Amino acid sequence: MLFHSARFVAVLIIGQTLYFKFSGSEESKFIFSVLGMEPWGRYGLAVLETLCVLFLLIPRFVWFGALMGFNLMLGAVLSHFVFLGIVVQGDGGLLFFLALVVFSLSTYLLYVERKKIPYLNKYID
């Protein structure tokens, strides 16, 4: 139950941010301008996040979606720490918090799915 809930929440959080990235909301434009990645970085990350959501939805590839989510959210968290700050345009730290939630859920999913990761599974009990 917890496994499926973690997948669902991660998909929900990442999925709902895709609209803002693809549509070019002012907040997304601001974030990627600060990072020096507007507009191609915004579109590129939106495509990667779309793939992440799709992999999280396919039971056989949850491990890969979790790995993508882990890395994408690690980048988001580090971007907040180094360039953006915790609060972005008065959001009260919501984007940072959501990135931490998806990072945590991805870490959990990677742990649960660790035996399905090719080449790594032979080193795990």
Architecture blueprint of SSEs:
Layout: H1 2-23, H2 26-34, H3 40-57, H4 62-84, H5 94-112
Helix pairs in contact: 1-3, 1-5, 3-4, 4-5
Characterization of this structure:
- By secondary structure, this protein is mostly helical.
- The chain has five helices and no strands.
- It has helices at residues 2-23, 26-34, 40-57, 62-84, 94-112.
Key structural traits:
125 residues, mainly alpha, 5 helices
Share of helical residues: over 70%
Largest sheet: none
**Secondary-structure element order, as H and E?**
HHHHH
Shape: elongated
> What does the radius of gyration come to?
15 Å
Instruction: Output the number of helix runs.
Output: 5
How many β-strand stretches? 0
Write down the overall mean pLDDT. 96
Structural class: mainly alpha
Count of structural domains: 1
Report the portion of residues in β strands.
under 5%
Q: How would you briefly describe this protein structure?
A:
This protein has about 120 residues and is mostly helical.
